[in-house]
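Sequence, please.
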């Protein structure tokens, strides 16, 4: 085994060590990677851009996508070379695999990639410092993929590095009890759990104090949020967003990902009553066929989804929708697929993600009969994506000529440009000073690009 770096104590935390985190997958993983960095900071670890400069490398993995485990092993092969080159130069490297593939395939990873030092699931990253110490002491790898009884959030440092650009993620809920036929999340992220209201408000307060204007609340089933309030009552998401806006002063609030079944009356009403809630909602429907929705165990029909959208748009007429779709779920016929196309035409989406069904070991659909041939899935995906692209282009084109508020999150691609996000999560570029970064300003949209919009500043500092 190659040498491991000695682990500095919290007291000697000034000794800088390089940390390189590779993040794959969803926004929850982006958040987790940031928090793992926070957890390791007291040990002296600081983020570095190149793995070759890193005393510790974390590969934070995602299990949703096709051939997820194979991609992990191929990346680990690359990182092994980095580790070996560093060892030859006399430097140790702790190599950790985190996230959902680690959770699902922990033992397999250690068997096939014995140069990995730490394997940790999403529920145990608060134990990283201890694992690093154990890895340094032990002559073998450390694996932590249990679902511990303690909530990791109770053990995370309150201070977190605040991202530049005025926008931040905040995880409020994790896990899922819905068990959709195709999905690994209930197995990798565990049962649904919500963070207490006070902890969420405290984290948001710190973010706002550091200039954050927009918070995206995260959870696998974020609108199933049911956190214990300071008053002992259980708060739903609508009550939480109201308090974040009015009590904490968050200017812009988003939340993702939602399940149609958990979209209750309070939350629908909140979209009309709470101006801080951005008029853009990611609400996956997956399919427009009742037969397929039932096979997927989604717990709602296509008409119930349509009705939900009608109610949401009644509350907030300018609400734009985004969704996830799967084509070729086992048993999906041409007629089922046509019903999905019809639902897309009926609802109209500003943006969407779409996937070919691919089996995940251990999920009910993976062993189901009626698997759809690959070429049929390909053809359906192409048709579906063409329609979604048409709708997305039309939605963006309709923004030209409008005045929107933009949160500027960074520099644009061209010199002298800054770029940011409209309320509908569209990328917007304007000519303007760097001082706008982290601020909200009003912009007249004048130009449509393939995946973004061009605008001019109106000179008004915007209201969210
Ligand atoms: N095959 C294809 N797509 C999947 N998704 C989740 N699991 C699978 C799978 N086995 C998609 C769903 C989900 C999104 C995050 O990924 O559409 O909403
Ligand atoms: Fe997966 Fe979402 Fe279904 Fe939960 S609700 S099982 S996270 S697709």
């Amino acid at each position: 085994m190659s040498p491991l770096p000695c682990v500095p104590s919290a007291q000697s935390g000034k000794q800088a060590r390089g940390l390189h985190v590779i993040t794959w997958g969803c926004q929850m993983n982006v958040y987790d990677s940031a928090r793992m960095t926070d957890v390791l900071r007291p040990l002296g670890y600081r983020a570095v851009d190149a793995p070759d400069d890193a005393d510790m490398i974390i590969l934070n993995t995602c299990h949703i996508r096709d051939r997820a485990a194979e991609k992990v092993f191929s990346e680990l092969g690359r990182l092994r070379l980095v580790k070996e080159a560093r060892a030859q130069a006399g430097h140790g490297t702790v190599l950790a695999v985190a996230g959902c593939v680690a959770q699902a395939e922990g033992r397999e990873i250690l068997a096939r990639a014995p140069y990995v030092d730490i394997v940790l699931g999403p529920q145990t990253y608060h134990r990283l410092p201890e694992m690093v110490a154990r890895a340094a002491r032990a002559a073998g790898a450390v694996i932590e993929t249990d679902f511990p009884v303690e909530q990791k959030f109770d053990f995370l440092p309150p201070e977190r590095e605040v991202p530049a650009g005025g926008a931040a993620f905040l995880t409020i809920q994790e896990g899922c009890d819905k068990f959709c036929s195709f999905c690994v999340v209930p197995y990798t992220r565990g049962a649904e759990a919500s963070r207490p209201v006070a902890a969420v408000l405290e984290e948001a307060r710190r973010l706002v104090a550091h200039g954050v204007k927009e918070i995206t609340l995260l959870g696998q089933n974020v609108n199933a949020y049911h956190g214990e309030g300071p008053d002992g009552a259980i708060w739903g998401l609508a009550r939480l967003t109201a308090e974040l806006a009015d009590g904490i002063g968050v200017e812009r609030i988003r939340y993702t990902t939602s399940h149609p079944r958990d979209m209750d009356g309070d939350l629908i009403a909140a979209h009309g009553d709470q101006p801080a809630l951005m008029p853009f909602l990611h609400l996956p429907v997956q399919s427009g066929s009742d037969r397929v929705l039932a096979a997927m165990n989604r717990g709602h029909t296509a008409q119930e989804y349509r009705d939900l959208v009608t109610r949401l748009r009644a509350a907030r007429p300018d609400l734009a929708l985004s969704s996830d779709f799967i084509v070729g779920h086992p048993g999906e016929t041409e007629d089922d697929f046509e019903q999905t196309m019809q639902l897309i035409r009926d609802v109209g989406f500003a943006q969407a993600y779409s996937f070919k069904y691919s089996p995940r070991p251990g999920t009910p659909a993976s062993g189901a009969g009626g698997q759809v041939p690959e070429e049929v899935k390909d053809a359906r995906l192409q048709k579906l994506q063409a329609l979604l692209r048409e709708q997305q282009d039309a939605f963006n084109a309709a923004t030209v000529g409008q005045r929107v508020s933009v949160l500027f999150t960074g520099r644009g691609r061209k010199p002298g440009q800054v770029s940011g996000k409209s309320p509908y999560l569209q990328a917007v570029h304007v000519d303007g000073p760097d001082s706008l970064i982290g601020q909200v300003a009003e912009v007249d949209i004048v130009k449509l690009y393939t995946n973004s919009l061009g605008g001019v500043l109106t000179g008004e500092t915007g209201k969210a």
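The first strand starts at residue 17 and ends at 23.
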